[in-house]
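Notes from hallway chat w/ T.B., transcribed later so I don't forget. T.B. wanted the structure written out for a chain they're using in a teaching module, and asked if we could keep both sequence and structure tokens in one place. Agreed to drop them here.
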Amino acid sequence: MMRSRFEFVVRRATVMVTFSFVLIMTGACSFNTAPDNKPASAKIAIEGTTPNPLTLILSSNFFEQINLSTGQRTPVLITSDTVSLTLPYSKTLDISAFGSVYVEVYQPEVATATVHMKVDLDTGPGYDQNATLADKAQLIYYYVFSDYSHY
């Protein structure tokens, strides 16, 4: 049976695309973060002085959006808890579902607060920062766990 040149080219292209896809998959697997290193908890401690209550936003269910033109990364919260915050504050957050954590301290008033925010992941150090929050400023920390082994 004679095959047309078009059929041969299509089959060859299909084989090449399939082969390229397998190489990409193997490359992605070699750069994964091991599932053993996925954090299960985040200990959050916030201290400082403020003339008014601050706002605290916590999430472990979010994703990171990347602007392909600028490379800017922006967290997009799917679910979160928002509470009025009096200092000092301490909480251990269960992040075992996704291994990611988002913590935001926000100054809702036209006032100045001095805060120290520390977030320790059970797999290692996370964040330790002092900040002066004036006139509706915010301090944000987030960590996104990536496990490419499932792709």
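Follow-up for T.B.: Residues 3-32 have pLDDT under 50 and may be disordered. Might be a good example for the class.
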